[in-house]
Amino acid sequence: MVSNPVHGLPFLPGTSFKDSTKTAFHRSQTLSYRNGYAIVRRPTVGIGGDRLQFNQLSQAELDELASKAPVLTYGQPKQAPPADFIPAHVAFDKKVLKFDAYFQEDVPMSTEEQYRIRQVNIYYYLEDDSMSVIEPVVENSGILQGKLIKRQRLAKNDRGDHYHWKDLNRGINITIYGKTFRVVDCDQFTQVFLESQGIELNPPEKMALDPYTELRKQPLRKYVTPSDFDQLKQFLTFDKQDS
Question: Does residue 173 sit in helix, strand or coil?
Fold first, then answer.
């Protein structure tokens, strides 16, 4: 509760009184000029002529306060708590990179085709760095399709190193179990993920087509032997003749 500075009474209706001896209620002048320059003066009295109570500090004391470290007042700065550890199988759960690729397979026992282009999808599972290769099923292809390589960690060299997502990119060849796959493109999620990790992606390439499959899509040619039978000649010859 605020007390009346004159009477020491609570500042409530009926307990505050005006000082009849005060006649000047102007504010003290704080700006003056000396040799043509404006000088700011600290006021010593307030409204009504009451003397202001303040602590006047010297320039040396102000400099000491400016250079004083707030260690004793606030203590040593505290480091932010470390982020919660999230294991990879939780952070990358159900996050899969998908690449479009193909490989060439020789067909030595066929007279209609010398090689075959087989289009596949390469999946990279971020949660455990495993991979799988799946070939989309083509109707009436006559070859075994589907899952070519089941999900597992795939070795990339004889030293036992495994493929990592940093090793994958567009426009490169990767060898898996003796087969060379040409990676031509990837989906949107894969592109965004790799670019966010600082991987510079190569431009996409056009998917190679299987020549024999494209040949089968063309309509079959029909060979019809022309007939020498002339219906008009027969009509003119046997006109008006009884059978």
Answer: strand
DSSP state of 142: -
| Fold entry, domain 89-217 | PH-domain like (2.30.29)
Scored b (16 or more CB within 10 A) or e, 133-169 reads: bbbeeeeeeeeeeeebbeeeebeeeeeeeebebeebb
Q: State the 10-residue block means of pLDDT for the chain, 243 residues long.
A: 54 71 79 85 77 74 78 70 82 90 88 87 93 88 85 90 93 92 94 92 92 79 73 77 68
Is pTM beyond 0.70? Reply is no
- By the 10 Å C-beta count (0-12 exposed, 13-18 middle, 19+ buried), 120 is classed as buried
CA-wise closest residue to 118 among 190, 211, 185: 211
The domains of the chain are located at 38-77, 89-217
Long-range contacts of 23-31 (CB under 8 A, 24+ apart): 24/48, 24/49
What number of CA atoms fall less than 13 Å from residue 111's CA on the CB side?
A: 0
- Name the pairing type of β-strands 146-152 and 37-40: unpaired
